[in-house]
Amino acid sequence: MVKSEFTSLSRNAEHMSVGSNCPSWNRHATSAVQTRLYHSTGSTPAEDDRISAPRAAKAVGLLPTYLADARAVEQYSLSTPNGALQLSVAENQLLEDLLVPSLTEFSSTLAFPADAIYYQPTQGRESFRKAMAAYLEDMLKLSKPMDADGIVVGAGCNAVLENLCISLAEPGEGVMIPTPYYAAFEFDLVARAGLSISPVTTMEYQDFDRESNIIPHEAYYPNRASLDAAVKMSLANGVNPRILLLSHPQNPLGICYPPEVVSEIIDWCREKKIHLITDEIYAGSVYRDDANFVSVLELASTGDGEALGLGPYIHLVYALSKDFALSGLRVGALYSENPKIRVPLQKLNDLCCISSHTQLLVEKMLTTASDDPNVSWTQGFRATSHERLRKRGDAWHSTLDELGIPYLKGTAGLFVWMDFQEFLPAMGSDDERERKLYLELLKEFGLLFTPGSSMKNEKPGFFRCVFTAASNEEFDLGMKRLKKYVHAKRS
Amino acid sequence: MVKSEFTSLSRNAEHMSVGSNCPSWNRHATSAVQTRLYHSTGSTPAEDDRISAPRAAKAVGLLPTYLADARAVEQYSLSTPNGALQLSVAENQLLEDLLVPSLTEFSSTLAFPADAIYYQPTQGRESFRKAMAAYLEDMLKLSKPMDADGIVVGAGCNAVLENLCISLAEPGEGVMIPTPYYAAFEFDLVARAGLSISPVTTMEYQDFDRESNIIPHEAYYPNRASLDAAVKMSLANGVNPRILLLSHPQNPLGICYPPEVVSEIIDWCREKKIHLITDEIYAGSVYRDDANFVSVLELASTGDGEALGLGPYIHLVYALSKDFALSGLRVGALYSENPKIRVPLQKLNDLCCISSHTQLLVEKMLTTASDDPNVSWTQGFRATSHERLRKRGDAWHSTLDELGIPYLKGTAGLFVWMDFQEFLPAMGSDDERERKLYLELLKEFGLLFTPGSSMKNEKPGFFRCVFTAASNEEFDLGMKRLKKYVHAKRS
Between chain A and chain B, how many beta carbons pairs sit less than 8 Å apart? Predict the structure, then answer.
């Protein structure tokens, strides 16, 4: 009994995973599998039931499992050139040369003010919240100033998102999310907050004319019809939807919803009194000029009253983990002008505060000038980041064009969404077919992509390629391997 | 309707509180009351019900309210010498001169390794966990080495405690806590974790012979009888107790449970299969040689198996907020050898990670040598801290001796627990009588102590004095004011 439990724990650990951005499975993290587990001495089955709470195991069960397979496969390195290439974790490794020297410099010139050792305002230091507001106004191109008191900074986007949702919905109520979606949302919203996910299915893209291998972005736009349908479905399942969570720019699709689509969603939410949370964690990674990205905050700003005039139903979450590749600093931020949740959010944030020391560092980064007097450090950094993202994105897009593989021509984020339906095996359930294809790509061709099923995509055969998680050499090799794969399959 | 809601929000904000250590009410934090709240335009009662979740308001309601009165009173400062003295917030301000230059130096010499920008292991960097283990082994005087893989570092003691309890008990199950207890435990364990508090009442001290004004420590020791009684009471209230949370050294009492008392508690917990969480956040602030403090980890270590041999029912939480006065860095740690919660704890901790940058800083602090080759930086720091605590403790104890006010002769922590029953007004309920006394001390004599009722003390008339939250001048004035008060009341 005891033994089988440990076995099951270990299996959990192996599977525990982790879609795109889950810390434990990137190259920097130690695997939970490696941790030592203690002998249990003489416990009985009855005792085993008491040594942990069922919700603990359930929380772990919420994590995606596809990387378990990847872990069983040799990873690519200079000494293992045939190992699998990591193209599935949403990490941007193109910015290290800019970040490391700057952070070292910022850190070395930090004075440590006496007040920083003591308890801070739970929502964050005032000067840091002001710096965050100024940064967001600039980066999101807002035409009115934010209210720094509407900002709460916490230990990561997941942490502030969890508290925001706890403040807006009761356990068992629903968070609507357009599919496909970032796999870790399920852990963030269900594990402790106790919410339910109500997926929003958008139009299938085969309904569009296809003249090229470019999937039309429109195929994935939510609208009144798809939102209404999702509400109906959710209610039929006994779940009352209270929140719509939008990933904008969209992960895993790598696209931006155009302003008219966003405005329709905003209007719908306000009419239905459903909270709209816009997750704009990739807003500083919009790398194409024609992306047509406009922040939900700008589109929802009514100009009525103070600050942006968002009213109680519009909220933003953001973090430095993607646009700055600073996931290790755990700096997230939320913004809301809803007066009823202001105090609860500040108080709940006490359970996920950012170190004063890191607040000081990041405040410095966000407020530093650059060598060019017309451009701040963050603006210069962002311009370089866009250039590098565009170069990688272009290269991957060209490869797909050349191969005639349908894909979404991304404009933002770190990914390309690809349609590999052509390569699905004929037999089996949807899940089995996609899993076979995933394993073939991984084991036979050394390509580790994020499978669409882990992101709740409706149809099997879609994959997300993260084009920033590899070195230049690895990225080039990835393109070669993909060509080899397609040629092998078609010949 | 809308207006009244805003009024109620503001009132909440004013009352929101906070016992001893809640960030929002110390002198460094901005008050939530000062935050700007937006106009709501034309919302209806039905709409109001949708703009926030009931659990948000409930969470705020868990915070203690006594400081609302304090906020209405002028605070002491050089320009307001008649203002009230802050002797209620558990902050140690005696260490600033040691900390600020050292942290500035540690910070300025920090290299920023490239791997620190990316996602870290969710349970903390390996080198930091090893440094934390070595520090705890030394500070807690453990005779066997800890397993660094049993450590999870998270954003504060409250954060790791919450996840530990979530992993050990289901919503609605009980956490037993001996009274009086740290007021914020209720927020930490109820707001999101959904647990219930089951108080453990210890013997009343009037059952002891009183030859002096010294309250016997024994009056507050839990034992098999009081624990059994608490279980019975909890079950009668429909709450199944799964955890016993021990504050050791005890806040607010300022005492340590002797080894035989702790051993009895450990045995009882193991027999009953109730998890024992020892909160040893003040273990580095044991300032008297005769304190007889022994860590629960040392007493529970069986030597069986690997690491300490604690088995699945013994767990520790710790943080740097008290012994190092570094509450602003939000560095908490938990330790457990329970294999079933290892992975859940690592994963849940993703929602309250410590910045890599602060992990690097604190690792440096914990591993630095001092000028004396035989003493590490933390050992030298601790010796100085003990000296200063003892000096303040002695002075306050002497004042109470001189005045003949019964008190617990503390040996650890930042407080003295005082019996002011003599000064309670005769009429009214227990709560009313204590509140009148509290307000008299505050408003007429400028003494802000923590009232026992906010810490769920059974009897009215007890107060906690925090003797480290004031400057030397303020502390001296506090002693003068107390003398003045007692003389005024007795004359």
Answer: 382
Residue A338 has pLDDT above 90, yes or no: yes
Burial class (CB in 10 A: 0-12, 13-18, 19+), A461: buried
CB–CB of A167 and B53 under 8 A?
Answer: yes
Residues 6 or more apart whose CB falls under 8 angstroms from that of B281 comprise: B157, B247, B251, B317, B318, B319, B321, B322, B323
Q: What ipTM score was computed for the predicted complex, to two decimals?
A: 0.91
Query: How many Å apart are CA B187 and CA B206, to the nearest integer?
Result: 31
Using a CB-CB cut-off of 8 Å, the residues of chain B touching A56 are 166-168, 340-341, 344-345, 348
Chain A residues with beta carbon closer than 8 angstroms to that of B57 = 340, 344
User: What's the N-to-C CA distance of chain A in angstroms?
Assistant: 51
Q: Which of A115, A170, A353 is opposite residue B156, by nearest beta carbon?
A: A353
The Cα–Cα gap between A460 and A409 comes to 20
Statement: residue A14 has pLDDT above 70: no
Say which residue the tokens 């939410």 belong to: A269
* Residue A271 near chain B (CB below 8 Å): no
- Token code pair at residue B283: 């273990």
- What DSSP string describes B305-344? SSTT---TTEEEEEESTTTS--GGG--EEEEE--HHHHHH
Confidence (pLDDT) at B23: 36
> From the CA of B160, how many Å to the nearest CA of chain A?
9
CA pseudo-torsion sign A218, A221, A226, A228:
negative
CB contact (8 A) between residue B28 and residue A119: yes
Q: Within an 8 Å CB–CB cutoff, is residue B166 touching chain A?
A: yes
CA distance B373 to B371: 6
CA A476 to each of CA A438, B325, B480: distance values in angstroms, whole numbers, following the listed order: 20, 51, 77
- Positive/negative CA dihedral, A285, A278, A135, A90: negative
Which chain A residues are closer than 8 Å to B168 by Cβ? 52-53, 56
Q: How far, in Å, CA of B253 to CA of B261, rounded?
A: 16
**Domains located in chain A, CATH noted:** 2-61 (no CATH), 69-96+378-490 (3.90.1150.10), 110-373 (3.40.640.10)
Structure tokens of A199? 């997926």
**Cβ within 8 Å, pair A329-B117:** yes
More confident residue, A214 or A424: A424
pLDDT digits (tens, 9 = 90+) for B367-411: 999 888 899 999 999 999 999 999 999 999 999 999 999 999 999
